[in-house]
Amino acid sequence: MFDKSKRKIVFAIVFSLLALMIVTLTTIYLSNRLSILRENKEMLKTYAEHYVLDAQPDAPKDDINGEMPPEPPEGRKNGRNEPVFKLSTFYSVTYAKTGEVLAVNNGNNALQSDEELLSIAATVLRKGKNSGTVGAMTYLIDEKDDYTLVAMIDGTINDKNQKMLFQLMLIIGSVSVAVLFVISVFIARRIVRPLEENDKKQKRFVSDAGHELKTPIAVISANSELLRREIGENEWLNNIDYENTRMNELIKQLLILSRADGGNVQKEVLDFSRLVAGETLPFESLAFEKGKKIESDVETGLTLSGNASQLRQLVSILLDNALSHGKGEAVALSLKSEKHSIVLSVVNDAEEMSPEQVSHLFDRFYRTDESRNESGSHYGLGLSIAKAVAEAHEGTIRAEYRNGKITFTVVFPNKKHN
Known about the structure:
Structural class: alpha+beta
Strand order of the largest sheet: 2-1-5-4-3
Radius of gyration: 40 Å
Helix content: 40-55%
Distance between the termini: 29 Å
Number of helices: 9
Low-confidence stretches: 57-78, 370-376
């Protein structure tokens, strides 16, 4: 139980960090990329505004046709004087209105051939969008009076820088997750340790108290028997014997629960199908006496590594619970294999139960209604013992109320046994 709690704590911490890291990386990457795209589009607008067909602007130059560009509107910087603009590589393809190619500018760096630029420009025009990206290229289409300009800027370096940034952040994030995993394991152990120690003390107390109480119970029983021989039958002695018997039964159940909680039980490979069928037989007579019947569907040949005494106790508790507290005339018991599991289920009619009541059924000393208090042999420990036995055998148990029926399902791992 506590190992599961530790794993949940570690998972919660690591998952939270992973989610935070993914959101952070995605935000930084997208914001950086959008910022670069906006900057590229602004530079392409500046490039297109000052483009002259007969004197194509090269990025490093400060003027076109020997003249300085006009002053920018108030509140807007002269983008062509920015270092980023001067260091960027621009390409362009100019088309006449008839579709004829008028000029191709490869940036004077021969990084892109004319054929490659013409292919990219044709792709851009087919897209039908005035701006966007194609591969590493950011483009802008500007319709002039006499021609159409397809201006492009190479973003290969920016893409590589982004990739390097992303890889670096991924490495740092992975190292951080690994470090936090180790720290979270330490924190989980520190958090759970007091609870684990307290649980061990409680189990030790139950076990020790149970054994210590057996002696006075036996003494009371012996003294009651001696008094009965001296004074004969007596109402008060009968009450003493009744309560003494109830106390003795309670102590037995507490000791059973303590042993089941301990988890250190001797196990062997059992024919679980035969065990369930055998434990069901005595309850068929009990069911008949109560005007009920047990509908049993047990798949044969199912084996399980476990403690025979505890597993019989588990089956007995579920059947006794169904016959003692269930409504209706039928109790359905099923044992079958499902994928990699062995599933034992007991179904019976029951009075309406709220989800909260169902969630507390396996709590110790819990009773859903007064009807359980009427029976002197039930103390609200049976289902707690069933849960402890299931967990001691690496299984799980759950209760579900639906349409007037309550179903108890126990799932064991179906391991192959030689």
